[in-house]
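Recap slide: YceI family protein, sequence and predicted structure.
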Amino acid sequence: MAGLPADAGFAVLQITDPVGEPLPNAEITLTSSETGRRMVRTTSDPYGLVTAALPHGTYAVMATLEGLQPAHRTLDVIAGTRPAPQSIQLLSGQTPELPQPGVWLIDPPHTAIRFVARHVGMANVHGRFTRFEGGIRVAEQVEDSYLEISIEAASIATGNRSRDDHLRSADFLDVERHPYLHFASNRFIHRSGSKWTVQGTLTLHGVSRTVSLDTNYLGAVNGGYGEELRCAARATAELHREDYTLNWRNMLARGIAIVGPTVQLEMDVQAMYRTHDTPTPPQ
């Protein structure tokens, strides 16, 4: 093969999910069985494919993706060949027991709502909202559950007073006219293992848009203020400022926007199962 050393061949892998669909972003390592040296570490492409040129020999293959069981294979690379893809299927991992049906109240002292925005085209600014409330109504069929959360816009905090005042102003959140951000779900979708997508409507700056939260359910335990039952999850989403008419623009002399067009939203949530004696979170 043109450009390929005489002693080299190709390893070609096709990574699939538990139902046989191509699986992107799986982490793949290939280690020489003869030397124990790790030769390749990469991720599968959007079609679940991995292709690598390697010296002739035998390799140990490991494929992993969070929420799924790791898969191990042995692969022979033959000099001068490019074989058809070898299929590797990642099966569902051990899934945390789902929360029991009922109302779960978000616990603010053990919940964080953060965001990351690009600044001057090269660095990130990290911030958070410090005042919010909400809860989850878990249905008998979890797919029928409902999440609602209300966030006080003026509670935005980035660690810089003048920047926070600017973010509260009419240039950005305009907290006098739009005091709250609000999210209400309309669909829970199970992806695989502990991974879910929570779809819903986010109202921000007086504009409502559909948002999908990529969610990793972390399980339920007894613990906390009074050994109450609580569950936890982590969720992320990408928001586009202009979708919510947050159109403030200011450019550096080089034409680089001071504030980037997208914002990464991150939520680490703990919620307590509501009973007649559920404790009130401290202020």
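Confidence is low (pLDDT under 50) at residues 250-257.
The chain has one helix and 18 strands.
(End of recap.)
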